[in-house]
Task: structure prediction
Amino acid sequence: MMKKVAIVGAGPCGLLLAHYLLRRGDKYQIDIYERRGDPRTVSFSKSRTYPISLNERGMSALRQIEGLEEAVRAVSVEMKGTVFHQKNGKTRFTPRQKPLVTLDRTNLIIVLLEQLSQKYDNSRLQIHFDCSCTAVDFVAKTVIFQSVLTDSSLKIPTNKEEITFNYDLLVGTDGSRSAVREGFLSTESFECEDKYYPTDYKSIFLDNAKNSKTHLKSDNIHTWRLDDGTLMVALYQVDGTMSGAINFPREKNQVAGLSSSKEILEFFQKNFPVIGQVMTEEEAEAFLNRPISRILTIRCNRYHQGDSVLLMGDAAHAVSSSIGQGCNAALEDVVVFDNLLNEYSDDLAETLKQFTVRRQPDGYALVELGDYAFPSSTSLFIEFIFRELIAKSLHRLFPQVFPPSLVDLIFETTVPYSEILNSYKGWVSKVKKSNEKVSTNS
Result:
């Protein structure tokens, strides 16, 4: 009998999950509900969009669906390494053995949507946009949505409609502020820790970068770091423009005090001259008006409820952007779930239980690595750089004795996050103590 699946959240994780479930034949009927509009037809604000980097962990998940890898690469740029720009104008280049595939998150979603629509008709797949999840009933196995109806000619909301969906499987892939996860809070023995990462960010878009005379290499990620921990990250997009984000400690926020586009331009020209040369007055004004974005991290003690509800992606283990693993981990969740469906012959009760058993340790380790892989203090950051150089050299000379460096394990491999954390627990503990001291002193 075909099972009715409700996927809440049409981000990369939810859409890839639909691909995996639908290829299993006639076992699943998929309904996807997304609170925002269809990105193929609606232009979203750039205030919180950002480029994402897919390493082997994420790309291998896409690769298992025919045509996905090629479609994603067509709207991506490969990054062969990272350039660290220093105050004195000099640069330090760190190459990658396996290039990162970088693209705007919205473009990844559009690719996944287009591929779904091409492969499956509405007999097994329904995608509902502008539908917010408002309530879940795990006992009755129902989920309620509020749909915003829009006048197509006026493009304005005209009415609201309540939709009740009866499910056999409910999957929350609806992000760090998951409405599905909210339903877990009333269940027995569920524990969830949510906290804000101490670094906030603002997105930045440099549309005239392709006409710039700065000559930044288009196949490298470019970073700048100030002594107070402020970090600027910028990279080229497939259309030749640049985008990225400036990350700043919440307690030492230089950006919040800037009150005019002139002050924005002066700030970038002084602290990040290369970016300051490219930034226009229009982008400075837009940057000024963008809200400061905060990063919520999530740790849960389990990802399933009974035999019919599951959390995946950021809903289960939202992580800071510091190690670039949020999307990679979310896509990997889908692979883990698919493998378990194979192992337990689509027995949902056992598959969901085992998903928590297999994945929760990695989800916890992922957040821990995101919080403490990289230090806040400048002195410890210098130590981190030397540690990386030594670890890379030792692994290259004696690979059977010395593991890869921490960065290489995170970015270059599919080694489970729990194993990475165990290998570098001493360093993570040291960074944790240092960051807490920095936070206390500030």
In short: The mean pLDDT is 92. The longest strand covers residues 91-104. The domain at 3-71+105-196+296-369 is CATH 3.50.50.60 (FAD/NAD(P)-binding domain). DSSP finds 15 helices and 18 strands in the chain.
